[in-house]
Structures are given as C-alpha cells and as structure tokens.
Amino acid sequence: MKRLFNILLALLLGIGILSATLLPSYAQIEEDTDLEEVEIVEETDLDDVWEIADIDLDSPFSLSADITEDNLEEFVEDFVNSAALLFGGIIFIIALGVSLSVYIYTAVALMGIAKKLDHPNGWFAWIPILNSILLLQMGEKSPWLILTILIPGLGTLVFLVISILAIMDICEKRGYDKLLGLLILVPLGNLILFGILAWGKNS
C-alpha cells in the first residue's frame, strides 16, 4: 500500500513539474508558430522526483527491483537447498538416535549374556573392539582372531564367519540349538538373538 502511494505521489509530482515547466513555454508560442519549432529548455530530472517522493531505488521493494525470471529461479534454488539441508539434518539426527539406541541395547544384552555365562569382563560390552573380544571369549574363541579383520579384502568376511561360530557356541552354552546363532544373519535378527541369549531362560 505504501509502495502504491509512493508511485502515485511520484506520478503527480512528475505531472506537476512537467506542467510547470511546459505551460510557460506554450504561453509564449504565437498562433502561427509550428509546434515542431518549439524547444523545451528545461527538462524534468526524474531523480528529483524519486527524492521528493521518498522512493529508495536501492530498496528491494522499489520499482527497480522487480522480480525477474532469474531472481525467481535463484529464490527457488535457495529454498530447495535450504529444505534439503533441513531434511538432511533431520535424517542425520534420526539415524544417530537409532544407532545410539542399538549400540546401548547390544551392550546391555552382551553384559546380560556375560552374566549368564559367569564371564568376569562383562564391562567389555560398552567399549568398541573390546565388545568383539568379549563375544569371542564367551564363544571360547581366541581373542587374537579379531586381527583377521586386518586381512586385505577378505578380512571382514573371515571375522564375520568366526563371530557366527562364536555365537553358535554361546547358544549351545545357553541351552539352545546351535543353529539359532544363524539368526544373526537376518535383519534385526541379531537384536532378537541377543535378547534371547541375555534374558531368555535356559532351554
């Protein structure tokens, strides 16, 4: 509304200035004078009009800052980037929360299994690498086997097989079938398996 008022005020002032400038010139023209011979001595300076109307040409709301197609594309691009950044941050926070919850659950479950098997180092469950050593010890496997993960290429696969064998031995110690240890290969099955071994009754 203010912008519209400024525009109308500028137009009225412009018309007033033009009228004041041109009317005296027309008054001096004789009837037989051709209009093509008339010279307009004074011209209206539009900058004075904007200054009188208090219009800031550098303002984003001024007439010179009309939204163009390039500006619109830039605005949409900035909006999309901001939305993507916000969405990525939310996903990261959710993933971090889920990972932390799974880690805590696994540590508590390993401590429960160690307690059931009377293992003295149940606190290993809370420390990375030591929790894998604890798993190997409870499955009566040498803790040095964790170094197999350093084998280039197949190290991770070899350690996975050793871990599965250790879990199968833990299942047998807890009175369950060895094949129950294969549940570790099922998505979310490891959480269920650790819960059974930690808090389930001896079969």
Determine the fraction of residues in helical runs and give it as a percent range. 55-70%
Judging from the principal axes of the Cα atoms, what is the shape? elongated
What class, by secondary structure content? mainly alpha
Q: Helix count?
A: 6
The largest sheet is: none
Summarize the structure.
The chain is an all-alpha fold. It has 6 helices and no strands.
Keywords:
disordered N terminus; mainly alpha; 59% helix; 203 residues; elongated
Describe this structure in words.
This protein is an all-alpha fold and 203 residues long. The chain has six helices and no strands. The relative contact order is 0.07.
Any chance you could write out the topology, listing elements then pairs?
Blueprint: H1 2-27, H2 46-52, H3 69-116, H4 130-138, H5 155-173, H6 189-199
Helix pairs in contact: 1-2, 3-6, 4-5
